[in-house]
Amino acid sequence: MTSLPSLPPPKKLGLVIDLDVCVGCHACVISCKEWNTGGYGAALSDQEPYGSAVSGTFLNRIHTFEVVPEGGEIVGEAGDARIVHFPKSCLHCEDAPCVTVCPTGASYKRSADGIVLVDEDKCIGCGLCAWACPYGAREMDLAAGVMKKCTLCVDRIYNETLQEIDRVPSCVRTCPANARHYGDFADPQSNVSIMVLERGGIDLMPEQGTRPVNKYLPPRPRKSLASTIPLAENSDGAKGFFAWLDGMLDRI
User: Fold this and answer.
1) CA gap 223, 243 in Å, rounded
2) Which among 21, 33, 68, 161 is placed 20 to 30 Å from 39, CA to CA?
């Protein structure tokens, strides 16, 4: 079995994901697939990508839920339900059960920055780490016969040949809604630490006792547009673009 580092790492690199602004566009999913297929480790394979039984290996996935808050308070414009897009990948837990259950030492947690990785040369594809992970963040690559997971783009964040702006995980660099943020949770002054403090960042399934490094920012309560934006009864006095639009609509 593999042991976790005996001392807390000097860095705790991870992600903050803002559920309030994620639009579920899957840009992070596709960017992650592309980067990790051509970067660290072996390519992420697909089986019958254009067939009837499509399957493939993805290190980042988006789940979409319709959420009704407890108490039924109104948080949407048209009712009391709303759609929440929920990105999910490895959370690089401090007490990572996928590491301690691995029989070959293939799964390990780096002592320098806390990133959880898989040594594909040691992995025998037994799947124990997938059973141990409460978040379903491990994926078996059927072509390679080994388990794979989010690497936090370790081959990007330390790559000094890249411009500094690109030395972040691919999913963070790609997100058009700025819903994903990367940083060092061991630094209380880092951007991610401040966001978690100010917005009340939460752990996913804290009852599991894994102490995930990645945090989620919960959705903010919604207000009706009518209560925040006064709506004009007519278009009298409209100027610029709105005057042009009003004229075009009159022709319809």
Assistant:
1) 28
2) 21
Residue 29, SS3?
A: helix
Structure tokens at 248: 């075009």
CA-based nearest residue to 107, from 130, 88, 87: 130
Cα angle 172, 185, 152 (rounded to 5 degrees) comes to 40
Tell me the per-residue pLDDT of 92-128, one tens digit each, with 9 for 90 and over: 999 999 999 999 999 999 999 999 999 999 999 999 9
DSSP per residue over 82-107, as a string? EEEEEEE-----TT-HHHHT-SSS-E
From the list 68, 72, 47, 74, the residue with the least C-alpha distance to 58 is: 47
Helix (H, G, I), strand (E, B) or coil at 2: coil
Task: Tell me how far apart the alpha carbons of residues 179 and 11 are, in angstroms, rounded to a whole number.
Answer: 22
**Do 213 and 13 meet the contact criterion of CB atoms below 8 Å apart?**
yes
* HSE value, Cβ hemisphere, 13 Å, CA-based, for 58: 18
